[in-house]
Amino acid sequence: MTANGTDVPARMHGDRVDWVDYAKGICIIMVVMMHSVLGVEAAAGQTSFMHYVVEFAKPFRMPDFFLLSGLFLAVVIDRDWRTYLDRKVVHFAYFYVLWVTIQFAFKAPSFAAEMGWAGVAKLYALSFIDPFGTLWFIYLLPIFFVVTKLTRRVPPLLILGVAALLESLHLQTGWMVPDEFCARFFYFYAGYLFARYVFAFSDAARARPALALLGLALWAAINAALVHAGFSEWPLLSLVLGLAGAGAIIATGTLLAEKRWLDGLRFCGEHSIVIYLAFFLPMAISRSLLLKFAGFLDLGVIAILVNIAGVVGALIIWRLAMMSGATFLFERPDAFWIAPRKKAARLQPAE
What is the mean pLDDT of each run of 10 residues along the chain (351 residues)? Predict the structure, then answer.
């Protein structure tokens, strides 16, 4: 049996599974797309054709990301607590603290104009209780990792059932941590619990590509119809659509990995957290410039260009940081490890 829980070796690229990175690449582009499109529309005061693309992806955009995040947890969950906390809590906490500070450094002047510098300080302090802006994903992941390890002795199906119930509540307290925990933990735990079956599903899509394409076409039609009709956020149906959409992205990633088409997606997936951390800056700059100097373009086209700028710009920032010695932006320094450091440690560990 391989480390990914399957009996059939998955397609590999170095020490990584190709289709997982393709799927993550699709997910991170959809995440940047959502922020790009909604940001452009809010600034312009009108919607564009890209709004419908964002709405189409809403039922599965984050469920798939969390399901993929749980896939390899079984490989490391039995490690001692010190090592586990280092890899799964301190790792993400370092980048959250660093990048929330960076975001505030850029946004503080505009915040100060609205609420004063005392308000900025209060908002910054609050960001360690209620995650700030786009960074809530890496704030929530450590919580999921810890909860899953703490409940190792609880019957898994009981946890899954409770998680499904929490997802169906569509909790809206106004505090992101409980709201997003209830909305997303089911998918993370399902990725952890059913990793073997997820990889088997990928193998099946690889073995029968024509059937997989037919299934994708059927799924796309049903998902679009339910979103358009306003049913996609109904209790239980939202959960079904989240799982179905995750399966669709997994199948798509598998087919792309098999043909090695759009290999840039794999690269984006391999560096998805890099993009997630840094896209806010090139996105904001490109949005401002395009709306100011390219108003003759269709608003949807502007949103697409902002999306591209966010993804590519984040990767450029990463490369410049690596080349200039500012590696602390994307690699955790030795001082912030509480367990022995791995060789060639990366921002997004392969395990």
Answer: 42 77 97 97 96 96 96 94 96 97 92 90 94 92 97 96 96 94 98 97 97 98 97 95 97 94 93 96 96 94 98 98 97 94 54 43
Euclidean distance between CA atoms 282 and 223, whole angstroms: 31
Q: Report in angstroms the alpha-carbon separations of 25 from 87, 247, 274.
A: 22, 15, 11
Token pair belonging to 97 = 């603290």
Can you tell me the distance from the alpha carbon of 225 to that of 212, in angstroms, rounded to the nearest whole number? 20
Query: In the 3-class helix/strand/coil scheme, how is 223-264 assigned residue by residue?
Result: HHHHHHHCCCCCCCHHHHHHHHHHHHHHHHHHHHHHHCCCHH
Residue pair 293/307 in contact by the 8 Å Cβ criterion: no
Q: What's the token pair of residue 36?
A: 């790009």
Going from the C-alpha of 61 to that of each of 138, 187, 258, the distances in angstroms are 15, 11, 22
Distance CA(129)–CA(166), nearest Å, equals 21
- Give the separation between CA 32 and CA 150, rounded to whole angstroms: 32
Strand partners, 13: 16
Return d(Cα 332, Cα 228) in angstroms, integer: 44
